[in-house]
Amino acid sequence: MSTTRQPEHRHAARGQTTAIDPVCGMTVRISPTALTATHQGERYYFCGAKCQTRFTAEPARFLGGDAANNATLSGEAAAPGTQWTCPMHPEIIRSAPGPCPICGMALEPMTPSESSEPSAELIDMTRRLWVGLALTLPVFVVEMGGHLFSLPAWLGGKTSSWLQFALSTPVVWWAGWPFFERGWDSLKTRHLNMFTLIAMGTGVAWVYSAVAVVAPHIFPAAFRSATGTVAVYFEAAAVIIVLVLLGQVLELRARAATGGAIRALLDLSPKTARRVNAEGGDEEVPLDQIAVGDSLRIRPGERVPVDGVLLEGRGAVDESMVTGES
Length: 326
Description:
The chain contains 9 helices and 12 strands. With 326 residues, the chain is an alpha+beta fold. Helix 1 crosses helix 2 (59-65).
């Protein structure tokens, strides 16, 4: 049985009436009034004047220059030319991994990868979670322990505040740093999301508490206790960061499990195909060397390596992996 491979259709945009803003990744409708810029003979469309100005100043930055930096957000190996999209906002399509400009989630490759390497983002978030948890537990005990059991007298007042300050600072500004980056990106793109709230809530709580520890005298007398201390909220900021990190780790693990299931299906597909050469003979070649218009020979019992049309011969094909039928 011989087949001819047909072209693959991948729609990066809805027809030819839209384009992708290379700065923010938004879908832009192509029209005579749309903001554009030309670079190396290519025309690019933008959602607003700010994106157009940023692109004009540093075009290389938005055409792959930051791909290596953004790769740490996803860490998933992908073939050259892979496009990335947001699971929550499929209209976002970019040529490199990074955060979604709308919700802040890490973009995923549109074409599943056969690589089984662990996600760098999952490894990074897991490390931040464990370090943050180890530092947050003592902060929680120091702050809330007085309500549960008696703490030594020396652990009250200023000593407690300074201890919480020392332990919570790396939790907020190291373990939670990715949330501040995504929160800042949401402000720049004017798409506020949960990372905006997390960054503002934990940041304000930490800054207020730090000022209360370093300079309690600037607060009104009503804010100060009999010992001259001001109530701090380091514990709240640290606990929020750790809980959000836990949510991110659980989400990334679920996505990794889904990716593993897809890779298991990809492993079922053949890695080579039997191509008919000009002399009518067969040659076994890797799938990435198969081009549109090539003629392939499928022998009895073999798997069909690519999509195509039947040229000659006849046979039965097991389609259970496609249809789900047993």
